[in-house]
């Protein structure tokens, strides 16, 4: 740690009075107060890696927002988890100003006279700080924080110009990672939309049956689709398509776990997938895993090496998570690996499986959707198009999916750079100019 760093308690570098604040407790806000539209209120589930997760966020009415005005967020606030995963935090950005935070969170409002909010949020992301905050939380079964604990947390920080420059570099890396994430959402949405149009809604066939050219489709592709529907056990389907068990388009592979008490089976070079490695829906691919096994661990367990392009589906516990294998890897026994066969490609198979998961959830009808077994893939039937259509789909979406993968590789590299620079920048071990040269060299 640089001996020129300042040291203060967290309370001393926050705004006076309400610099550290707990969210509204149950007596102020109840589940019944939530509405579909209104002012968003974030809770622990929405605390991502320094960014608020904009998904499934409850809202409250205008009158509740006014009643809870002292819990409104401002740009530059930092929100921490108060219970459970107490090392999670997010920085509030401009688009989230005016949102609320729940009683399961704590809000920190840094004083700009002393501290750059972004710099402080990165400080909270240091592995050493996360370990420290977990250690000082109270409660054996459910770790918790409160304002009294946070008030006395020591913060080591450089002078403001150095903070600003360090935050600028870390934010630039983070913004590029976020841009890749947003791009992947768009690309994945396009690939999914084409699949749904062609093989669920049958838009090209509907258009041709009405005497129109399918929208946005070249003549050579249009010729692959018929101009009429025929009856089937699944209802009207395009002529030439057939109803088959899902297993018709895939081969099914099981997983396994090497013995955990045999050290030579673990910490090798082969990625080993479990549910914790599931990518976000928009990232599609799993490129790396938390745990790795050795070749001996693979050889002496029931797990097999999955080929790139295999779709992994989690089948027990957290059921229905999907991951497209981005490099050869093994997986545990709570998953199945599904590889397209009979000529059906990886991307057609992946989106077919995505539809299968949706159908399984609909069939559960409120009961617990808690397991998938091998016979599940025989029991559910799907509409299988002529092979030419499925292969044309692969050609259409391959550039989209490859770009998603490239973005993930780039983001992984940027994340490693950020993790390398983070403690050194914040501690003053290396200076901003050195960091800029490192980033420029990698770029």
General description of the model:
The structure is a single chain. The chain has 443 residues and is of the alpha+beta class. Among the domains are: 152 residues, Adenine-n6-DNA-methyltransferase TaqI, Chain A, domain 2; 139 residues, Adenine-n6-DNA-methyltransferase TaqI, Chain A, domain 2 (Alpha-Beta Complex), CATH 3.90.220.20. Helices cover 36% and strands 18% of the residues. The protein contains twelve helices and 22 strands. The strands form seven sheets. It has a five-stranded mixed sheet with strand order 14-21-18-19-16. Strands 2-9-6-7 form a four-stranded antiparallel sheet. Strands 3-5-4-8 form a four-stranded mixed sheet. A hairpin with a 7-residue loop joins β18 and β19. α5 runs parallel beside α12.
- Please count the beta strands (DSSP E, at least 2 residues each): 22
The CATH architecture of the domain at 6-157: Alpha-Beta Complex
CATH topology name of the domain at 6-157, in short, is: Adenine-n6-DNA-methyltransferase TaqI, Chain A, domain 2
The helix fraction, in percent, is 25-40%
In CATH, the homologous superfamily of the domain at 6-157 goes by the name: DNA methylase specificity domains
Low-confidence stretches: none
């Amino acid at each position: 740690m640089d001996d020129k760093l300042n040291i203060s308690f967290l309370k001393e570098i926050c705004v006076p009075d309400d610099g550290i604040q707990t969210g509204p407790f149950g007596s102020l806000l109840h589940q019944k107060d939530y509405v579909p539209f209104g002012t968003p209120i974030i809770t622990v589930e929405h605390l991502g890696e320094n960014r608020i997760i904009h998904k499934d966020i409850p809202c409250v009415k205008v009158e509740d927002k006014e009643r809870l005005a002292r819990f409104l967020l401002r740009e530059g606030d930092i929100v921490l988890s108060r219970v459970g995963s107490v090392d999670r935090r997010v920085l509030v950005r401009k688009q989230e100003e005016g949102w609320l935070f729940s009683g399961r969170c704590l809000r920190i409002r840094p004083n700009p006279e002393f501290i750059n909010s972004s710099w402080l949020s990165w400080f909270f992301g240091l592995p050493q700080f996360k370990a420290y905050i977990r250690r000082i939380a109270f409660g054996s079964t459910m770790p918790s924080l409160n304002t009294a604990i946070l008030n006395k947390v020591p913060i080591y920080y450089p002078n403001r110009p150095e903070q600003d420059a360090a935050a600028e570099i870390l934010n630039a890396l983070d913004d590029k990672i976020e841009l890749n994430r947003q791009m992947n959402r768009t690309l994945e949405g396009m690939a999914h939309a084409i699949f749904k149009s062609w093989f669920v809604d049958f838009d090209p066939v509907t258009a041709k049956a009405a005497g129109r050219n399918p929208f946005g489709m070249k003549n050579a592709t249009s010729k692959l689709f018929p101009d009429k529907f025929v009856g089937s056990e699944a209802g009207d389907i395009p002529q030439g398509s057939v109803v088959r068990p899902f297993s018709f388009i895939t081969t099914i592979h099981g997983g396994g776990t090497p013995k955990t008490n045999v050290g030579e089976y673990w910490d090798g070079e082969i990625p080993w997938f479990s549910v914790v490695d599931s990518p976000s829906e928009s990232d599609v691919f799993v490129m790396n895993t938390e745990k790795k096994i050795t070749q001996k661990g693979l050889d002496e367990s029931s797990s097999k090496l999955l080929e790139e392009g295999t779709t992994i589906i989690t089948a027990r516990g957290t059921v229905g998570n999907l991951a497209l294998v981005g490099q050869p890897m093994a997986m545990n026994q709570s998953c199945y690996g599904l590889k397209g066969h009979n000529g059906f490609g990886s991307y057609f198979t992946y989106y077919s499986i995505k539809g299968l998961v949706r159908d399984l959830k609909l069939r559960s009808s409120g009961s617990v959707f808690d397991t998938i077994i091998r016979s599940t893939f025989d029991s559910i039937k799907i509409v299988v198009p002529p092979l030419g259509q499925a292969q044309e789909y692969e050609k259409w979406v391959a550039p989209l999916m490859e770009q998603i993968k490239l973005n993930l590789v780039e983001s992984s590299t940027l994340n490693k750079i950020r993790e390398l620079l983070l403690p050194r920048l914040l501690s003053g071990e290396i200076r901003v100019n050195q960091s800029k040269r490192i980033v420029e060299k990698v770029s």
